[in-house]
Amino acid sequence: MTEIAEQRPRAARTSGRRTGSPQTRAAILDAAMRSFADKGYPGTTIRAVARAAGVDPALVMHFFGSKDGLFVEAIRTGLPVREMHGAIDGDPAGLGERLVRRYLGLWEDPATGWRMYALLHSAASAPPAADLIRNFMVAEMLIPMTRYLRCDHAETRALLAASQLVGLGMVRYALKIEPLSALPREQLIACVAPTLQRYLTGDLPLTG
């Protein structure tokens, strides 16, 4: 397991079954995120998540409806969408650098990095998980980005930028491939930001 995954907090021991409180819902989500990080989407089960959270499986179903519903909520809470939205606002000429800088910071933050790893691991392990993440990203990131760009081929531009960031997260933080994983952060930003900026606002060989 990677260092990112190992950053996650350990579950608190429970005595007896929990009832349906907001704290219980949060405990279930936390247990689910740990399972997605360790076992991916296929290896995560409602029963195992319930056992780790100290609740009855029926309570997990009550809160989330299904394994897909649990994963969608894990995406919603695990992907720091608001933080990425904050990087969008500002001078369009600096958008590429702002996005890369914020994205790297989220991976390196112990509070968010392991959650991003869990979701990336799950997306790589099962097509259904990848579909759920894709749908969420389109609704929560792609559409707001295209509205901000207000230029030709905005959707394609946003997807090109997203592909660059996802690949960067996989190689640097999940797989830890040298020398990219050891490249100083400011050097990495200087290398990647111009590419993102070109994707978002530069001239691209796109037609139609």
Automatic annotation (TrEMBL):
Which SUPFAM superfamilies does UniProt cross-reference here? Homeodomain-like, Tetracyclin repressor-like, C-terminal domain
Question: Is this entry keyworded DNA damage?
Answer: no
DNA-binding region residues: the ranges are: 45-64
Q: Which domain of life is it from?
A: Bacteria
Enumerate the UniProt keywords alphabetically. Answer: DNA-binding, Transcription, Transcription regulation
The entry lists its GO molecular-function terms as:
DNA-binding transcription factor activity; transcription cis-regulatory region binding
Q: Which residues form the HTH tetR-type domain?
A: 22-82
Q: Where is this region: Disordered?
A: 1-23
Identify the Pfam families for this entry: TetR_C_16, TetR_N
Q: Which PANTHER family match?
A: HTH-TYPE TRANSCRIPTIONAL REGULATOR BETI, HTH-TYPE TRANSCRIPTIONAL REGULATOR RUTR
Please state what the protein is called.
AcrR family transcriptional regulator
Q: Name its species.
A: Thermocatellispora tengchongensis
